[in-house]
Amino acid sequence: MPVPQGEEPSFNVNPTRQIFHCFGCHKGGDVFSFVKEYENIDFPEAVRRLADRAKIPLEYDKNPGEQQSRHLKERLLQIHEQIAQRWQGALANEASGQIARDYLARRGVSEEAVKLFRLGYAPDLWDDTVNWAKSKDHELAVVEQAGLILRKQEGNSYYDRFRGG
């Protein structure tokens, strides 16, 4: 349906690219992120609901090793989603993110693009992600498996892989 002249759409779906963008709340993504946002559920549940709606059976291995592996993958995805939100918040709201906001402005990256592509900023600290993970009760060894922190060569402590960017 064409948009009346002089009016801007508040929600856009691009069927060719299979993405959406809401100009009101500045959220966008694919069908999975739409269902996650609209129904306030996590990614695995969105997959299950979409498969159910499309009458696509999901098959799970009954092997305990495969179940553990799938559970670990889900935990890693959840950690990555949460740290992405943390870094998006740091870019948008924290004083330390001003340098990144200035850089993006100099490069001509719009606020809409920042939100659409979920850009973020990892604070320039050695332990920001480590402390964030602890505050979320994530096991540091799992956060290390997620590739977000590194174990120091000596001792049993960790430091952030991504800093100041």
CATH H-level homologous superfamily name of one domain: Zinc finger, CHC2-typedomain
The CATH topology assignment of one domain is: DNA Primase, Chain A
Helical percent range?
40-55%
Span between termini: 42 Å
Helix tally equals 7
Structural description of this entry:
With 165 residues, the chain is mostly helical. The chain has a domain of 50 residues: DNA Primase, Chain A. The protein has seven helices and five strands. The protein has a three-stranded antiparallel sheet, covered by helices on one side. A hairpin with a 6-residue loop joins strand 4 and strand 5.
Keywords for this entry:
165 residues; mainly alpha; DNA Primase, Chain A; three-stranded antiparallel β-sheet; two-stranded antiparallel ribbon; 7 helices; 48% helix; flat
